[in-house]
Amino acid sequence: MNQKQLDLTGGPILRTLTELALPIMASSFLSTVYNITDMAWIGLLGSKAVAGIGVGGMYVWLSQGLVSLARMGGQVNTAQALGRRDRESAIKYSCAAIQLTLLFAALFTVLSLLFTDPLLSFFQIGDALSYRYARDYMQITCGLIIFSYMTFTLTGLYTAQGDSQTPLKANLAGLVTNMILDPLLILGVGPFPRLEVTGAAIATVTAQILVMAVLLAGIFRRGATANILREIRLFSRIESSYYRAVFRIGIPTALQGTVYCMISMVLTRMVAVFGPGAIATQRVGGQIESISWNTADGFGAALNAFMAQNYGAKQPDRIRKGYRISFRVLAVWGLFITALFVFFPRPIARLFFHEEDVISVAVGYLIVIGFSEPFMCIELMTVGALSGLGKTKLCSIISIALTGARIPLALILTRTPLGLHGIWWALTLSSILKGIVFYFAFQQVNRRLELKKI
C-alpha cells in the first residue's frame, strides 16, 4: 500500500486542498453512512432502544473531548514542525500525543465503569427499559474506548503529514465490518444470538478495533518509509517542552468539546421531559445531521493541516486563499442540506421511525434545524482553520460562550407555545450566530498575520 503524503506548502491550492480533503470527507461520509445505518437497524427495536443508545452514547461523546487534547495538540504541532522541515520535532510531538492518548483512555475507562449508574442518573430516565439499554451500551463502548481514542489520534497524525488516504481505507474497512455485524448481532440472524443494543455496541467496538489495526499496519507497510510514525519509540522519554506544546494547543479544544457535550447533556435532560420519542428524535436527528456535520468537520481537518503547514512555512497568501476556496465549497454543501431537510423531512424521518407520533416530532426537528446547516458548516470549517494557526483558545472562547447560550434560550423558548420546538430553535439560532462570528474572527486573525508577515 503506497501512502501518498502531500506537500501542503506548494502547488495549486485548490488541487492540494482537494487531494487532501476528499479522502477525509469520504471518511466522514462513511462515518455518516455507518451512523445512519446503525440507527436504522436500532430503530426496528423501537424508540426506547434509540433513546437508550442516545443517552449512553452521550458519554462516548463526552470522552472525545479528552482525546481531542492529544489529537489536536499532536496534529497541529506535528504539521507546523513539518512545515518548518523539522522532522525530529514532528516525531516527538507525535510520540507525546500517542502517549497521552493511551493515558487518557485508561483513565476514562476506569471512571466510566466505576460510576456508570451515577453518571446515567443525571438524565433522570423514567423508563426502565431505556435505562437498561443506556447502561449496556455505555459499559461496552466506554469500557473499550481505547480503540476509538487510538483511531482518532492516529487519523490526526496521518492528516498532519498530508496522508488522508490511509485513514479512508481504514474507515472503509470498519464501515463494511459494522454494516455486516449490525443486523447479525442486533436482530440475531442465523446462528447469531439476538443481542439488540448490546449487539450494536459490540459491532461498533469491533469496527473500531479493525480501523485501528489498519492504521497501525499502514505505518510499517512497504512504501511508508516517509511516515514519521515509523520512527516513534512509544516508551521513550520526551522532553517536557513537547508535552507542554501539545497541552497548549490541545487544552482549549478539549475544553471546548467537553463543555459542548455537557451543554448537550443538559439539553438532553430537558428533552427527556417530553418522553422517549423526543430523546430518540434528538439522537437520530443528530445522526441525520451528521451528513453535513461530518463533511464540514472532515474538510475542517484537511484545512487544519493545510493551515498548520503553511503557517510553519510562513506563507500567509496560501492561508488566505485556502480559506476562501473552502468557504465556497462548504457554503454550497450547507445550502444543499438545508433544502433536503426543509423540503423532504417526512421521507427522511420514516427511514428511522415507525411510530407516527415520533415521526411528527422528527419532522419538526429536521425543518427547524435545517436552517442552520450552512452556518454550522462554516463554523466547523473555520474552527479547523483557526486551530491550524494555533488559535485554539480563541475557538474555545467563542464556541463555549455561544453554545452555552443554548441553555437559557431553550429554557425561555420551551415556556412559550413552541414547547419542544423551542429547544430545536435554540440549537438553530446559536448555530447561525456561531457561523457568523467565526467567519469574522478568521478575517481578523488573517489580517493580523498579513500585517506581521507571520
Put simply, the count of helices is: 17
Which parts are unreliable, with pLDDT below 50 for 5 consecutive residues or more? none
- The gross shape turns out to be globular
Q: Note the beta-strand portion.
A: under 5%
Label this structure with key terms.
single chain; 454 residues; mainly alpha
Structure summary:
This protein is an all-alpha fold and 454 residues long.
Q: Describe it for me?
A:
This protein has 454 residues and is mainly α. The protein has helices spanning 13-43, 47-83, 87-114, 116-121, 128-143, 145-160, 165-188, 197-220, 240-272, 276-312, 316-343, 345-350, 356-370, 373-388, 392-404, 406-414, 421-452. It has one domain (13-452). The two termini are 37 Å apart. It contains 17 helices and no strands.
Question: How do the helices and strands line up, and which of them pair or pack?
Answer:
Blueprint (H helix, E strand, L loop, with lengths): L12 H31 L3 H37 L3 H28 L1 H6 L6 H16 L1 H16 L4 H24 L8 H24 L19 H33 L3 H37 L3 H28 L1 H6 L5 H15 L2 H16 L3 H13 L1 H9 L6 H32 L2
